[in-house]
Amino acid sequence: MRSFDGKISIDDFIYLCKYYGNVIYDLEVIKENYYKLLNKEEKQTIDSSLDALLSSLEDIKIKYDIKEFFDRENTGFDIRFAIFDVKHLQDYKDKYLHSEIEDFFKPIFTKTFEIEEKCKPIASKIWQQELSDVTNFNNKNYGFLVYKITERSNTNFLSFRKYLTDVKSRRLSTTYINPNDTKTFFEYKSDYGLIYKLTPKNFLGGCVNDAYSTEYPTIKDEYTFAKSNASISDNKKIYSIFEDGEQQVFSGLEFKYGKDYATQTITPKRMELRSDKEHYNEVVLDYLNSKPCAVFYFYYGHKFITSCNMAELKSISEYYNVPIVAINRLENCDLKNLSGEMKGYISKSLANMVDIKIENYFSNEIDEKNSKVFNAIIKNNPETKEQLNETLKSIDYEMKDNDCIQDL
Questions:
Q1: Residue 118 falls inside a structural domain
Q2: Pairing mode of beta strands 240-244, 213-216
Q3: What is the pLDDT of residues 232-251, one digit of tens each?
């Protein structure tokens, strides 16, 4: 559980206020959206916890004469509106909170730590019920936790396996995706990876944006502990979302970059309510207690339109003995009004099968050649490599000779 080690700095205080507000919003979302899924004891836990937090919120409003500081559409409750008006509190020239301010807020934050710890099993239960079963996958309705395999491991599964073996990491940073939000970590670097299950043993926390998670001792090829909020704070444990002996996982990378922070009360609906879909979210799992349940890859309108090497995906599937899930990123998109980003992904995928020169994967337009190939594949809907080749020949293109393309 989070705890205090020393005096509260101004930076700690800003973080704690944001964290406190996130926990309140998390619990409100649980009560408004998942209450029917809970048993009697769990309902009582959510009710009493929320009542306690809202009561402390009223105390803060009264003491500091704060009329309103809610912004649910973007960030949920955000007490920082009060903090940034330093006249309410003190000048930023001081490193630490004045003692009378710390004495008032410290019990409120300590109670929030206890509530988060008490409600974490309920959030975990909700995630388990809401995440989709890979054996009953439906492109129109799903929710998965995914981890991208990228050139961080040289975009090669053998190298990736060695990376996972050599790096004794406990932190597994995944992204929650659904048909309306498929943005992921390493968005531009890969279109495939692994799907993981969430369990009570591996759930560490999550954030509607990048949680900037890191761990200590410092892990090779990961964000270093030296760049984390915890490394420069007297209160390292307020940033901790996992501890096992010396191994700890923290949320928050340098205050000036930290947009949001992980909580252990977050749920899928809370992720879906976020307004900032331009950035990916983060759900942190304990790698030691996590196993992939499927390999996934993104395609664009048709399963052949992907930048992934299908032969490699099959080798990963066989290694883990898990199925391959093909996710159509255009399922909820208007094909006549695609974003420049999606057009770029399509161009990159088409270059996998035909010799099309791409000067800019992320341009705002699919050029005439790309449109011709894309539309022909969508129209003819080939199911085999041979049928795909015939489709391409019908528009005067020759399919590349490689093992990236396999029969569906």
A1: yes
A2: unpaired
A3: 788 999 999 999 888 888 88
Please give the residue range of the domain that contains residue 211: 10-131+197-290
Identity (one letter) of the amino acid at 91? D
- Alpha-carbon distance 375 to 119, whole Å? 50
Q: From CA 64, how far away is CA 60, in angstroms rounded? A: 6
In the predicted model, is pLDDT for residue 385 greater than 60? yes
pLDDT band per the 50, 70, 90 thresholds, residue 74? very low
In a domain, 15, yes or no: yes
- CB-side neighbour CA atoms (13 Å) of 356: 26
Q: What is the distance between the alpha carbons of residues 129 and 42, in angstroms, rounded to a whole number? A: 15
Gap between the Cα atoms of 259 and 346, Å rounded: 30
* 44 assigned to some structural domain: yes
What does DSSP say about strands 292-299 and 324-328: parallel, antiparallel, or unpaired?
parallel
Structural domains of the chain, count: 1
pLDDT score of 315 more than 60: yes
Q: Which of 57-66, 171-180, 267-276, 394-403 has the highest mean pLDDT?
A: 171-180
- The alpha carbon torsion through 88, 89, 92, 97 (nearest 10 deg) reads -160
Asked if the structure places residue 286 within a domain, the reply is yes
